[in-house]
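Hi U.,

Before I forget, here's the chain from the pilot set. I'm dumping it here mostly so it's searchable later in email.
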Amino acid sequence: MASATGTVRHPKGPAEPPTGPDAGAFLRAVLDSSVGAKVVVGLTAVGLVLFVIFHMIGNLKLFQGPDAINGYAYFLKHEIGAFLWLARAGLLLIFVLHIALAVRLKLRAVAARPVPYVVMHSAQAGIASRTMIWTGIVVGRFTLFHLAHYTFGWVNGTEVYDPEAGRYVWTNYLELKDANGRHNVYEMIVAGFSNGYIVAVYLVAQLFLFVHLRHGIPSVFQTLGLKNARFRGPIDILGLILALLVLVGNCAIVLAVQFGWVQSQYR
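Structure:
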């Protein structure tokens, strides 16, 4: 039996100090391990895929007319402004984590075998799987261009009719306003995709995104241990369908402007 001076802690006494690693050390250990890094890459991929899908759905409001997409943009910016900035910060974090860890895993794999195989025979790996890192880098660089183009208005502008001056004047995308004083996202999209060079950049980027999603979505299930022989077929089909939907939806927005299906109200 323990004595009064033994090691038994009094139930109302001070809490014993933790003996295990703290949360920071645990997180660093997870991210430093290959298995942990792959899991984080998979989880961040889920967030990024969901964002891509919902971002496309929001942009498809272009086909409903100026009021629909301008009202949607106003709602995001003014009605849920604080939440929007939190979502942007979280999206930026998972975007950086996804790219950084994926590149580090690739570099580790290359370093583990500095001498390449004399003859390469891939039983399951296709072009999409072998080029994931490169398609991801292209998509990442395009994302920065997309932000510079539409979010910050650094890439291009447009001409709008000024009734006071009686002529067209050059203006930044972000200064476009509709009749209700809202940011005229409709005209911004039309102006942006009226430039043939920018259209080419977007269409090529969507092809890279399709290839990346086509393999990346099924890979998430594989990484998280949710893909087996029974569900391999349906999961691969799901990846193909989602990648095709994103490709068709995003390209439809670009081509609708180029073919004149969606036109500026200023002309």
